[in-house]
Amino acid sequence: MAKILLLHSMYGLRPAVHLAADRLRAEGHEVHVPDLYDGRVADVPEDGIAIKEEIGREELLKRAVTAAAPISDDGLVYAGFSLGGALAQTLALADAKARGLLLMHGTSDLADDASTELPVQLHVADPDTYEPVDWQNAWYLRMRRAGADVEVFRYPGAGHLFTDPDLPDHDAEAAERAWNIATDFVSSL
User: Fold this and answer.
1) What is the CATH number of the domain that holds 60?
2) Separation between Cα atoms, residue 76 and residue 78, nearest integer Å
């Protein structure tokens, strides 16, 4: 059983995040889903971007750290959707006890001197407007240079947040494939 911190996308803590948490809980994992937006949610990208920018990246990171701190004593699996994936990556790389990193739809830059032996899995649309292939390839190489054990799964034709059934990006077949692979990954940690 893994203890997982699951961070939401720029849309906020939507039902899809709770569904993902429930899916992971059904596999026997303990899942924590903090609300980094204080109850606000968005239905369109522009509103999500506005909330994200109003709060600011540093404050979102601070809120994510605050959510992780009381539950990270035994080592967490950090996970997130898009923006939440970027935040999860930042936290995981800074946590010497981290057990793994599950990225759904998003990554973040990393320092040239980053060092980690984390198992990492990325699930991303192909193509993805927020995660272009050139970015993904450069990210993959930087993560490998840092020492991470990285797997990337691309889903042709899927939209950016293809696992969220309430968004136009949703692709049921791609989402099911991604979750089957992701739950096996988390169970192996």
Assistant:
1) 3.40.50.1820
2) 6
